[in-house]
Automatic annotation (TrEMBL):
Its main location: membrane. This is AI-2E family transporter. Keywords: Cell membrane, Membrane, Transmembrane, Transmembrane helix, Transport. The keyword RNA-binding does not apply. It comes from the Bacteria. Pfam families: AI-2E_transport. The keyword Transmembrane applies. It is a multi-pass membrane protein. It comes from Streptomyces goshikiensis. The chain crosses the membrane at residues 133-154, 217-239, 279-310, 316-349, 370-397. InterPro entries: AI-2E-like. Belongs to the autoinducer-2 exporter (AI-2E) (TC 2.A.86) family.
Amino acid sequence: MSGVQGWFGRLKGRTAALREHGARVRARREAEYAAEYAAEYAAEHAAEHAGAQHAREATDAARNPAGAVPWGVRVAAEAGWRFLVLAATLWVLMRVIGAVRLVVLAFVVALLVTALLQPTVARLHRRGLSRGLATALTAICGFVVLGLVGWFVVWQVSENLGDLTDRVQEGIEELKRWLLNSPFHVTEQQINDIAKKLSDSVGTSTSEITSSGLKGVTVVVEIITGLLLAMFSTLFMLYDGRHIWQWTLRLVPAAARRGVAGAGPRAWRTLTAYVRGTLIVALIDAVFIGVGIYFLGVPLAVPIAVVIFLSSFIPLVGAVASGALAVVVALVTQGVFTALMALLVVLLVQQIEGHILQPFILGRAVRIHPLGVVLAVATGGIIAGIGGAVVAVPLVAVTNTVVGYLRTRAEPGPAASSVDADEGAP
């Protein structure tokens, strides 16, 4: 009996162990199932979240198309519309200047003359003369000198015009004989045809000029008006230039007033240095080239020297054109040898001017690259003719000075500090 009870006891123990083992297996499987379910749920939730995020981004892109544009394209577009605004502003400005071109050119000429005469007014004022008397004395002397120069040129041309015409006719006949005997096989009939065409062209031009006399009178009236406006503007700027500058500064916004106040004196010093240096260089060119062609026996040496002086105010282009005029007059009046000698004189003087006079006299104040000079003269000539060609280079020189000053002032560091400390310089 005891053996049966022991067997049932062992069976009961094994059954309990089996139940415990089954419970542990079930618990482990339930934990595995729970982990798998949690992972699947998390994956599904992440996919749903990503899909929702992508949908929101697509919706935002649909609502804001600029967000879908690449960064480089956006930068190019921003720069492009700003460039178009600047181009439109410049076009409108050019149209306005073209509409009042006479006033603008007269004012610019007055600025150039004022830059030339203002040091004399300041010197006389420091020596005890009143501002008005110094201005009147300087202006009268300057205008008298200009009038005497104009009268002298007209007198020399009228005195030598007949002799020049005879010399030109002789030169043309000599050129005709040389062409007939040259290896180019030019016939007399061809030369006569060319002469007839030239004569017809001159006759047509003369008739057109005669028929447009009213237009010529209008041009003369405009020239006289421009001269009077330039004279009055020069007088007022010589007498009251400082107050005019202060009034101009009050029109500038307060945020930019300090920079403009610092750039103004520097621009004026650059303009004064340019006008004074160009005047000295032009005078030296005219004197030396005029003396050279005078000793070569070229007629109208003095009027040609005056033309060289006036043309030298158009850098590079004016010197070449006036030098070519001297060579052509020497060719048609004195022959090939004299023309070559005149060309040698012109080239020598211009080389001395370009390599010695301009760097020494103008210095660093108006340092502009020759390409910039040529482009400025060409642009000014296209926009406003000879007057535009004259004022183009000083305008570029002043702009270069102002931009350089403003750029240095905007840069942080000791350079900007020194610029700010020097803003009050006259």
